[in-house]
Amino acid sequence: MDTEEGVEVVWNEVQFTEKKVFKAHEEKIVTMFDNLIQVEHPNIVKFHKYWLDVRESRARVIFITEYMCSGSLKQFLKKTKKTMNQKAWKRWCTQILSALSYLHSCEPPIIHGNLTCDTIFIQHNGLIKIGSVWHKIFASALKTPTRSPREGQRNRHFFPPDFNLAIDDTAVDIYSFGICALEMAVLEIQANGESWVSEEAVTRAGQSVEDPIMREFIEKCLKQEPHQRPTAHDLLFHRVLFEVHSLKLQAAHCFISNQYLMPESLVEEKNKQVNPHAVMAEIQHKDRPGVIWRNGLYPLMNFAKPRPVLLPRGLSQPIDDDQGIKTPMPEPLEVETRKVIQMQCNIEPNNDKSKWHLTLFLKLEDKLHRHLSCDFLPSDNSKGLALELVHFGFISEEDCERLAFFLEEAFNKHQFNSSLSSMATSVQ
Length: 428
Hints:
The protein is of the alpha+beta class.
């Protein structure tokens, strides 16, 4: 129990019997854990904190993670008596792939390396979270076994033939996800009395999946050659998970490709002109009801290419040192790379006249709008405010000087107007 936050957490320890082994890999451990502390995703078990306990005879890494009280996906599937509902299967696959896509898009990419139904957790509300993201650090970097031989045999079918190669590749996680998706579809892959699940058993289980699109989706993930497996982001757009009619799909791609040529108010203006009852296309069938596409606007938000998530190095300190070190401000969660193409601001005095209230409007190059507001003293400078916005990931470093100059002009104009107003009041 975390007495400070009042929540249950998991205390994890990795012990090194030889101190020299720990020292040889200490820098890599610290770097990876600093990155993992920065990971924020609704489908990934949260890392709260870590610290190193190094003594003369031994060393250990201690880290605190979120506690998942509802149990693993493996336990849930064992309790399920009938075939999994396809809608639930799609929802689970989407959540797992969303987490993998996030990890793989980090810079450098974070490879899970231990994705099984035992390391995927499910909450009572259906939310899926993947855990044991730290496993790859100790399993590959340190060449140290972190699971029991029995557990390794039981779960070895989750890992592709290329798993033990020296080259780290995100395709390893895609293969593991494919086995998870297969187990979710068939509930359990029968080992036929063996201590492990054979390749033939996996093939038989795949052939037993009735839906051909689901079966094709799983087979894509289980390709023997790593370069033939799709990425997590690509799988999110597979037709079994992402169902958008081709006319809407084509229109969405056209819109995204040419969005910079279109006025900002285009959608709003077109929406006023749309007749929702007008028929745009129709397909007639002799043996079944036809299909009609009516006019309308569809909010398709997932076509833009993902921006890589930059993970800055965190400031994780041992517990004993927390009180002695004061950080001026927390580390930024993400580094902004998009440019600001439009800036507007409004400055008004607060009720007590001692502070000003700034409202800042920023329009980024992908047409994302940001409305920011804060109170500041007349003695505050625009450069410091701009640097703070860079630090917290609201603007890119390239826009810092331009925004500082813009705010400086706005501050000077406001002070000038305030002085004129004061002089007019004095004259009256």
